[in-house]
Amino acid sequence: MLFASRSFCCLGIRTHLLQRDLPSKSIRFSAFAMRSESDPQRRHVNRETMPFKHKNTRRIEGLDSNVWVEFTKVAADPSIVNLGQGLPDISPPSYVKEELAKAAAADRLNQYTRGFGHPLLVKALSQVYERVCGRKIDPLTDILVTVGGYGSLFSTVQALIEEGDEVLIIEPFFDCYEPMVKMAGAKPVFIPLRNKNDGNSASSADWVLDPTELANKFNSKTKAIILNTPHNPIGKVFTREELQMIADLCIKHDTLCISDEVYEWLVYKGNKHIKIATLPGMWERTITIGSAGKTYSVTGWKLGWSIGPQHLIKHLQVVQQNTLYTCPTPLQEALAQAFWIDYKRMDDPDCYFYSLSRELEGKRDRMAQLLREVGLKPVIPDGGYFMIVDVSTLNVDLSDVEENQPYDYKFVKWMITSKKLSAIPLSAFCGPETKVQFEKYIRFCFIKKDSTLDAAEVILKNWNKQIA
Ligand code: PMP
């Protein structure tokens, strides 16, 4: 004990406090640890067998499993055609890369910039979104630039969601919504999109919210609803009527709306992306989230933004100033320059905001055709770059895949091993009660260069021959 006390003193820790506050077991452990350091034979025993008092915090309890961690690991083999995680393997626009090279060459841009967003970037974002939203957006008070759409979601939830609040999450949902809400001490309340064609879904538009079911989920504890349009993973683009229904409930119950619109530019012919913040009475209660990764096919840049009224954004800024402080300056500068280029040609069809979705529409149709060739019936997305498909109709024998996991997890693991093709299981995007409803679906990502889709085609054609 004397040894331990001395050692703690060396670390500048007041041992009398430790002796009073810590369980005696941890002091004994420390004494043992110190002795072991000088005894090579005992060093091993110490590390392997001694109990360690530091456990995880309660706020992350039960949040350890994560679909991206699990499936990026199993699909890491380069011989696997990876249509799982949503990362483009197409080239980003050349001017975007050139602007980054220029920014990196300017000395002053290699230092910290304004914490809530690089001045040139928030200015560019305000100009673009003023045009889209048809209202004044103050670059300094109505925008926060952060680490990707993830960072925007995190600062929004941390800033505005209180312990004990309820937050409505539409299922299936981008998987981090649930743990983020739980980490804030709040309760996720799920509301599923239901297939109005009873299992015969051909289009993402078939997936709808039941108005009565939705209305019944709102109560005095409902602090916010998280909306995602265009939707990941289904590809649904919410219509004005659907958004109005959500807006009416938000206004009636004085609820916030966290609107994740990272795929805002990726809408296909016949569809229009509408921002819920532009509906009457919604600007005051909505945080709209965007992402550079999705806008310019640069997911590795990890820049995102939240846009909303000053009275909400100021709280997000408090989270940022006390956590991340700021985002990388050269990336923000390059993104700002790219936005200026596209802002100036927003009336031109060649603007990247519109040209990317034209390019992707061809890839979407090709992906659908490939899946049809193996006898599958894909759900054609109206937006985003994912396509879901019911794989249960293939009746694949999964008895060899061990693990007590949902059907889609087992199917994807089987497909990776035996077909060298990867996707993402849809039940990863559901709360506990709805998993069984979605476990026959898997999600493919189609923002891939032609050679990747060619490789997928070879796999699917061979698969088809085996079935026939
Ligand atoms: N929201 C949705 C719906 C997403 O699909 C993603 C990324 N897959 C994000 C947010 C996170 O965006 P970012 O990569 O910019 O952090």
UniProtKB/TrEMBL annotation:
Assigned EC number: 2.6.1.63, 2.6.1.7, 4.4.1.13
Superkingdom of this protein's organism: Eukaryota
Pathway(s) it belongs to: Amino-acid degradation; L-kynurenine degradation; kynurenate from L-kynurenine: step 1/2
Keywords from the UniProt entry: Aminotransferase, Lyase, Pyridoxal phosphate, Transferase
Known cofactor(s): pyridoxal 5'-phosphate
InterPro entries: Aminotransferase_I/II_large, Kynurenine-oxoglutarate_AT, PyrdxlP-dep_Trfase, PyrdxlP-dep_Trfase_major, PyrdxlP-dep_Trfase_small
Record's catalysed reaction(s): an S-substituted L-cysteine + H2O = a thiol + pyruvate + NH4(+); 3-hydroxy-L-kynurenine + glyoxylate = xanthurenate + glycine + H2O; L-kynurenine + 2-oxoglutarate = kynurenate + L-glutamate + H2O; L-kynurenine + glyoxylate = kynurenate + glycine + H2O
Cited Gene3D superfamilies: Aspartate Aminotransferase, domain 1, Type I PLP-dependent aspartate aminotransferase-like (Major domain)
Pfam families linked to this entry: Aminotran_1_2
Domain Aminotransferase class I/classII large: from-to ranges: 80-446
Subunit structure: Homodimer.
Protein family membership: Belongs to the class-I pyridoxal-phosphate-dependent aminotransferase family.
Protein's name according to its UniProt entry: Kynurenine--oxoglutarate transaminase 3
Primary gene name: KYAT3
